[in-house]
Amino acid sequence: MKILLVGGAGYIGSHMVGMLLEHGHTVVTFDNLSTGFRDAVSGGLFVQGDLADVAALDDVFRMHTPDAVMHFASSIQVGESIAQPAKYYVNNVSNTFNLLNAMVEHNVKRFIFSSTAAIYGEPEYLPIDEDHPKHPLNPYGRSKWMIEQILEDYEHAYGLKSICLRYFNAAGAHPSGLLGERHEPETHLIPLALQAVSGKNEGLTIFGRDYATGDGTCIRDYVHVMDICTAHLLALDKLNLDGKSGRYNLGNGAGFSVQEVISAVEKIVGKKAVVIEGERRAGDPARLVASALLAKSELGWSPVYPDLESIISHAWLWENKASNAIN
User: Fold this and answer.
1) pTM for this model (two decimals)
2) Domain span at residue 137?
């Protein structure tokens, strides 16, 4: 198939480009490089463009006639979404409208959307399944939930089939160490912990040690980036086979605490992290753990790298490569 991959120069998107090419698909990456990196796109055709540019989108669909679209181009920082909600509603909602309308105009019926666990808000029960109430706590989560609801309307009106994959915490890197996280600034725990133990950062802040968990720190469900990409590949297969839309959580079903992550990083790297004790952040639940039973039963998805050691080891390979490249 020919896949239009929007946001393919970013963290998850760049890994997805490689996996699609390995499986024989043709890939057209469309990215404005505002947060992505051109050298992260390992092959296929690259088109620099913005989802706000309706004419550019029309050109891409007209010239390349994709069979399906994967969307990785959302803004993703929760704190920033609270401080700059306009940015999130413009990019995550309005710009996605442009993409969906281009699909309708050019009769492209298959869409795979990067959604998020942030649509659920404060958990009412654990593990969180797909039927859990949707009460997002911030503009980021609300923007993603808006698109999920819009997709239902687009299916009923235009026959556009979609699969939304609700990530919990994407983590890790390509096992080769050739691709990994390159956020500027970095906000994710595992790369921040690796940078803290390697001396790249002065220290790592733990936001609260008084949660109702075993060691007092928050527990989150981490999913290896390659397992996330595999879920997208399986979602594409499902859309081709039965043409049915779906909504699926992607998680390992067993979370790890902030302290467990730090301890695992220290063990793998062989150095201690400088830890800064911080206050709780507003809206941080004690535990966020997914039920991915639906993805396993309907997509046939099963994480290959569910263990924290693999996730951190692969991220450390990338961190070493990135640090050496800078030095």
Assistant:
1) 0.95
2) 2-171+224-250
